[in-house]
Amino acid sequence: MDKQKATLLLEDGTVFYGTLIGKHGTNGGEICFNTGMTGYQEIYTDPSYTGQIVVTTTSHIGNYGVIDSEAESDGPTIASIVVNSFSEIYSRLDATQSLQEFLESNGITGIADVDTRKLVRHIRSKGAMNAIISSEFDNLEDLQKELDKVPDMAGLELSSKVCTKEPYYVGDENSTIKVACVDYGIKRNILRNLAARGVYCKVFPAKTAVADMEAWQPNAYFLSNGPGDPAVMDYAVETVKEILALNKPVFGICLGHQLLAEAVGIKTYKMHHGHRGINHPIKNLNTGKSEITSQNHGFNIVREDSENHPDIEITHVHLNDNTVAGIKLKDRPAFSVQYHPESAPGPHDSRYLFDDFISLINNN
């Protein structure tokens, strides 16, 4: 049976042709790439990728299927995927469905049989940009009109759209450590890591008032990862400012790291093409040790602002480009990192950060 054709059109006019995977249709978003050699399901279900077209640099996608336990959220919120070689069959015995079935059931249109090496080199050179994938439009002019409707990621607030609608609990309700987790697009494995260390978590929607979270009497606060531009999340920055005023321990990851920075006057900026993969080298400036980390972000905090801030200590740097990868406040018990210490898939080099958070809570 012949495969249905699909087209990928980039904002700068570059066109790639391939074959349809997932659902017949048209999907647009910001195109980015992830260099991980495994873990496609975790990537596709990470809320931080909301509204993005994800190019996977590893050649074979779909060959081990989909399994419920590896989902990082209730379902994918990505716009689309681009792959080289796509497998509709899978070999893992405990997989519950094929990736094709997963994409179809979630309404995701993707494209396969694309020269992803060429595409990734183009994105690395030109930077992240909007793109669109379609199996419906043959005419590029019509497809361009659809692409023009796709909003830019810069200036986009997405966390309130992907966060939980109602609070929920994770962990042992009899624990003496209670952490209020502000959900900007939280990954399940973060909550598992906290619960494994004896934390009782209550996960709150992104726009929850601090007074409502304080009514639960938490010992500390966690600021989660999530999608979108932190510079336009005024409501979240105000929330973090109020949390910091409580002088309780605070730990932020990725978007949570950016919001912590914004709350103390450090600006954020959109990166050229971001950091996305499971092999990013980070140096801990306090220990001198390096970590191989999992990352997914298209925004970062301004290094000069961090260096000049009297109450900020830079704790981690990215060894590829010397960007700031971690900070802590000198005047309050708060710290954050621009990567994923829950590290799944990939090495567990950064799990100690959860232990540091527990120590901060116990010693506060």
From TrEMBL:
Gene3D superfamilies: 3.40.50.880, Carbamoyl-phosphate synthase small subunit, N-terminal domain
Active site: 254 (nucleophile), 340, 342
Region feature (CPSase): 1-177
Catalytic reaction annotation: hydrogencarbonate + L-glutamine + 2 ATP + H2O = carbamoyl phosphate + L-glutamate + 2 ADP + phosphate + 2 H(+); L-glutamine + H2O = L-glutamate + NH4(+)
Biological processes per GO annotation: 'de novo' pyrimidine nucleobase biosynthetic process; 'de novo' UMP biosynthetic process; glutamine metabolic process; L-arginine biosynthetic process
UniProt pathway annotation: Amino-acid biosynthesis; L-arginine biosynthesis; carbamoyl phosphate from bicarbonate: step 1/1; Pyrimidine metabolism; UMP biosynthesis via de novo pathway; (S)-dihydroorotate from bicarbonate: step 1/3
Pfam hit, one: GATase
InterPro entries, sorted: Anth_synth/Amidotransfase, CarbamoylP_synth_ssu, CarbamoylP_synth_ssu_N, CarbP_synth_ssu_N_sf, Class_I_gatase-like, CPSase_GATase1, GATASE
Lineage top rank: taxon: Bacteria
Enzyme's top EC category: ligase
GO molecular function: ATP binding; carbamoyl-phosphate synthase (glutamine-hydrolyzing) activity; glutaminase activity
Binding site for L-glutamine: 48, 226, 228, 255, 258, 296, 298-299
Chain ranges of the Carbamoyl-phosphate synthase small subunit N-terminal domain: 4-134
EC numbers, comma separated: 6.3.5.5
Keyword annotations: Amino-acid biosynthesis, Arginine biosynthesis, ATP-binding, Glutamine amidotransferase, Ligase, Nucleotide-binding, Pyrimidine biosynthesis
PANTHER family in the record: CARBAMOYL-PHOSPHATE SYNTHASE SMALL CHAIN, MULTIFUNCTIONAL TRYPTOPHAN BIOSYNTHESIS PROTEIN-RELATED
HAMAP family: CPSase_S_chain
Role of this protein: Small subunit of the glutamine-dependent carbamoyl phosphate synthetase (CPSase). CPSase catalyzes the formation of carbamoyl phosphate from the ammonia moiety of glutamine, carbonate, and phosphate donated by ATP, constituting the first step of 2 biosynthetic pathways, one leading to arginine and/or urea and the other to pyrimidine nucleotides. The small subunit (glutamine amidotransferase) binds and cleaves glutamine to supply the large subunit with the substrate ammonia.
Assembly and interaction partners: Composed of two chains; the small (or glutamine) chain promotes the hydrolysis of glutamine to ammonia, which is used by the large (or ammonia) chain to synthesize carbamoyl phosphate. Tetramer of heterodimers (alpha,beta)4.
Family: Belongs to the CarA family.
Protein name in the entry: Carbamoyl phosphate synthase small chain
Protein source organism: Echinicola vietnamensis (strain DSM 17526 / LMG 23754 / KMM 6221)
Phylogenetic lineage: Bacteria, Pseudomonadati, Bacteroidota, Cytophagia, Cytophagales
Gene that this sequence comes from: carA
